[in-house]
Structures are given as structure tokens and as C-alpha cells.
Amino acid sequence: MIRRVVLLHGIWMPGVVMRWLAARLSEAGFQCETFGYYGVAQGPDQALPSLVDTLAREPCHVVAHSLGGLVAMQALVQHPQLPVERLLCLGSPLRGSGAAQGMRRHAWSAVTLGRAATLLEGGFGQWSGRAQVGVIAGTSPVGLGHLFGTFQGEHDGSVSVEETRLPGIADHAVVHASHSGMLFSPEVAALASAFLQHGTFHAAQAPPGPAQAGRDGPGR
């Protein structure tokens, strides 16, 4: 079984934000490393060559938060030969971000997206690559995304659940966590471990406390 896991952070966060989740995955037997990049100043295009080199070194899984999920998927689209077995996206607007579209309409907020704007807005139409893709979405509406975009249905404060549902993915789960909060959620850590090991969230063992996940199958 593949034990190497490469973690990617989101647009405005440093790589250190992935440390808590990396520790939980390490406890489950995975060997974790974090790939850092400058989402705003340099954008996904600048990050992709280095990410491709990192992923190509040896077989691995990828766990990516928010924009990191789109960056990782873009790498796999452009380089389908990469030895990535599973990609787990946490709160990634794989179908495009309504909040990002709203931010682009205002000069003062558009600048905060930098060179990541195009990928965040457009997303992808479907997934048909070799790697198994899983997505965890949040439903705790704590964040500033609603100030810029109108969400349809439940959301995590920055990304709606529907924006995370991409046709062709292997599995999809919903948890009661905010966009950033899922990086520190024992429930998300348990689901992540299950998906990396088995390719499905249904193998997860519930963490202590009341179960909150809604494991609703592949994207649609």
C-alpha cells in the first residue's frame, strides 16, 4: 500500500496549516510531506512545474485543501502519467467558485485572488483521470465567502457543497465543519485516512463524539 502523502494548502494559507492533519495521517501510518506554493503572488501556473516534479518522484497520494485541490487536479490533467493513486480534496470548488466570481467584480477584492483567479472561477467539467478522487465538503457557514457570492444550498462559509460535486469522482462526503475548520477536524482526519487506504469514505471509523459525516457517494 502506498504510504507517501503530499499535502497542499489553500490560497491564503502557509504550508504549516496542514501540520495538524499531517500528524493525524502520520499516526495512521502515512509518510507525509507538505508542498508549499504562493497561490496569490505566483499562481498555479508557477507552482505546477515544481509540483509535478514532487509528485513524479515516487508513487503517492495527495491531500489538498481548497485551491490546492484544483492545483493538484490541474497537474494530473496536464500530466496523466504522474504516479498519484488517490487525490483527496478538502473544500475544493472543483466546479468553480461562486465566491471567486463575486470577488472578481470588485477591484479591491479581485487583487486578493491574484493569479489563482482563473482556475478558481473556472474549475473543471468532470474527472476522467486514472487517480481516484475523493472530496470532503463542509456545512458550517463560517467565512467571508457569502459576502461576495450567493450560495445555493449548504456551504462552509467559502465554498458551497454543490461546487465540490464533480462528475467522475470516486466518493464524496459532507461534514459539519467550516472551510478552514476541516483542517483541524478529527472526523475529517478519519475520513481522509479511510479514503487513502481504501478509496472510499465508508471504511472510516467514527472519531469519539457524535457522528456528523454524510457520506453521499460519488459526485454527480
TrEMBL record:
Q: What UniProt keywords apply to this chain's record, in alphabetical order?
A: Hydrolase
> InterPro entries annotated for this entry?
AB_hydrolase_fold (IPR029058)
Q: What Gene Ontology molecular function terms does this protein carry?
A: hydrolase activity
Q: Does the keyword Hydrolase apply?
A: yes
Q: Tell me the PANTHER family matching this sequence.
A: SLL1969 PROTEIN
Name this protein carries in UniProt = Alpha/beta hydrolase
Which species? Answer: Agrilutibacter solisilvae
